[in-house]
Design a protein that fits this description.
The chain is of the alpha+beta class. The chain has one domain. It contains three helices and five strands, in the order ααββββαβ. The chain has a five-stranded antiparallel sheet with strand order 4-3-2-1-5, with helices on one face. A hairpin with a 6-residue loop joins strand 2 and strand 3. The relative contact order is 0.23.
Amino acid sequence: MNRVTTISTIETYAPPLERNRHNHRHIRVLRWTFRRDEDETVVCELALTGEDREYELRVPAEWNPTRRAIERFDDALTAFQRHAMIERTLLDEGWVLDGFDSEEITLH
């Protein structure tokens, strides 16, 4: 008796993985926009770094007590405390909070 053996294509063939889709990471950026005199704007941003190890606060150096445009923090509480300090300085100087938004950014 002759035997015919078939191989199921389901078991042996798997479509190639779309590796690029899995390599994209998403982070959330918090953004505060302050305005003064209708033509002046200061933007503060807070987000995790791409490695999820540190929080990065971005603000124009002139408004940061450390005089750096980018500061990194090990924990969220310290980063938010620094932001609150900067916000207080801006409000004391006549700035108003014009907007807050949260955006998801894709890292490649």
